[in-house]
Amino acid sequence: MSQNASPSKVNTKAGTFKHAMYAHKWLYIMIIPGVIYMIIFSYLPMGGLIMAFQDFSPYNGDTMLGAFVHSPFAGLSIFKKFFIGPDFIQVLTNTLSISIANLVFYFPAPIILALLLNEIKNVAFKKTAQTMVYIPHFISMVIVAALTAQLFSTTDGLVHHWLVGIFGRNNAPDIMSNPKLFVSMIVGQSMWKETGYGTIIFLAALSGVDVQLYEAAEVDGANRWQKMWHITLPAIRSTIVIMLILRVGTILNTGYEQIFLMQNSMNRGVSDVFDTYIYTKGVVNGNYSLATAAGLFKSVVSMIMVLGANKLAKMFGESGFY
After folding, report:
1. Cα–Cα distance measured from residue 192 to residue 105, given in angstroms and rounded to the nearest whole number
2. What is the pTM of this model?
């Protein structure tokens, strides 16, 4: 009997997948464009990583494929050149300075704002406030950079004139050209632009908190801060951990557009990060192998950071990202 039963179980399991495919065929059809997009723009370009191990030149062949085939193999010499080069330490320091500052100041901002919005009892005012803080996300970074330059201009900038009135003309900080203030300016822009939109995922997590927990805590005499600390924060802790893991994974990714737009000759020593370095070496100077090696280094470090942060989260009893 057991020998006759086993094939039927196998057939049942095999048929389950086919049945699920047929039952949800339209859902699978809908993801086809996304899969095609990922293959074309995410997976196929990974073939170009071979340039990090070649002395690549587009003139080595008559076609694109021929350039890859005829470029001499360089092994790890490109990575060695990248690591011992004069720019690596400076670029790494600048990137980590901006990323750590974003992690310390920008990452908690959406959480704090979401907690504050969650405490608003007037529904109309709450929706209006949410709409107002979402708007900056939809403003182009080019517009944000132009607004920053206009507000902090030393000639006719409104905010600069306020600073002159507070600190005096000789002591007023020059936000646009002072290298020591570049990181603060970048973090401030990020917080103004993305904090409101970043509250969406945390407000969604807060909507799932059982109201009876607050009622029971209020009966026990808990005040608003105690309810927030003992009920609200533990309820969204797993969401915070997942977002933190994702943020740690992008620690070497500071964003090319924002840095490039705010970069000038006065702050270049602190504003040259991996993203701008890859653009300069690859697109401007045509050193594709070195730029590819720098990009691959970024990707490997990001993967290690995600795996490490996820492992650390599990060690502390959280579910982690996977």
Report:
1. 12
2. 0.82
